[in-house]
């Protein structure tokens, strides 16, 4: 789950931000979608592959009374509409889009693109497996600690007092990813703030004051 500066994942993100579709992005069509647009459902006839150029989308499952977020797609992520999931924009979004058959032909004709795509898809699969594992075997405090540690590993910034991590998702979104409620997640963050483990830095970031203490809470109790 760690992304380093020289990985193909970040190269794909840079390509997705480019103004012209070259190389990996050749053949994709740039499309724009407003916030809260339901891009696809399990019953959708749309069969496309897309790369996120900008914005954010939520991938989730939905039952009669509950939704379960599987992942949030951000610039550089690749996904397909041909899955048993719902995909909805949570911000104004630009996507590079290609129908699945054309994408398969592209990979067959351009082997150099395959490792880039597979690494991004592998990360999303890893996230889904980790989510299932957390929901099945770990309690909410452990899930939250693991989530924050993951953010620290991928996007944390070392500062004098600890590690500063961005919170691009709201508490409701984080709770949905963890299979919990906003109240529970907020209560845990408040508790850890009182214990000196972390500190809120406005609404969009957290300062992790003690990574070792957070790592202790990421391990299931013996």
Key words describing this protein structure:
7 helices, 41% helix, 222 residues, disordered N terminus, alpha+beta, four-stranded antiparallel beta sheet, single chain
Description:
The strands form three sheets. Strands 1-8-3-6 form a four-stranded antiparallel beta sheet. Strand 11 and strand 12 form a beta hairpin. The protein is of the alpha+beta class. The radius of gyration is 18 Å and the shape is globular. The protein contains seven helices and twelve strands. It has helices spanning 8-17, 100-109, 113-137, 140-155, 171-178, 182-194, 211-218, and strands spanning 29-33, 38-40, 48-54, 57-62, 67-73, 78-80, 86-89, 93-99, 157-159, 162-166, 198-200, 205-208. 41% of the residues lie in helices and 26% in strands.
Biggest beta sheet summary: 4 strands, antiparallel
Q: Please report the number of helical segments.
A: 7
Output the helix-strand order.
HEEEEEEEEHHHEEHHEEH
Structural class: alpha+beta
General shape:
globular
Q: What is the count of β-strands?
A: 12
Unreliable residue stretches: 1-11
Distance between the termini: 25 Å
Q: What does the radius of gyration come to?
A: 18 Å
């Amino acid at each position: 789950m760690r992304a380093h500066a020289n990985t193909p994942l970040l190269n794909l993100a840079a390509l997705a931000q480019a103004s012209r579709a070259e190389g990996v992005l050749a053949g994709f069509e740039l499309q724009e979608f407003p916030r809260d647009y339901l891009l696809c459902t399990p019953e959708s006839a749309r069969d496309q592959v897309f790369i996120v150029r900008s914005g954010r989308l939520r991938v989730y499952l939905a039952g009669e009374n509950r939704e379960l977020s599987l992942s949030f797609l951000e610039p550089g992520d690749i996904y397909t509409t041909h899955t048993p999931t719902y995909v909805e924009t949570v911000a104004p979004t630009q996507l590079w889009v290609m129908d699945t058959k054309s994408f398969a032909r592209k990979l067959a004709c351009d082997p150099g693109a395959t490792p880039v795509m597979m690494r991004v898809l592998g990360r999303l699969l890893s996230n889904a497996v980790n989510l299932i594992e957390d929901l099945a075997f770990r309690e909410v405090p452990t899930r939250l600690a693991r989530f924050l540690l993951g953010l620290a590993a991928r996007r944390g910034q070392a500062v004098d007092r600890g590690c500063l991590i961005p919170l691009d998702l709201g508490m409701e979104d984080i709770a949905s990813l963890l299979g919990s409620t906003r109240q529970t997640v907020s209560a845990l963050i408040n508790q850890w703030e009182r214990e000196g483990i972390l500190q809120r830095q406005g609404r969009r970031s957290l300062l992790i004051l003690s990574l070792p203490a957070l790592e202790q809470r990421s391990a299931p109790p013996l």
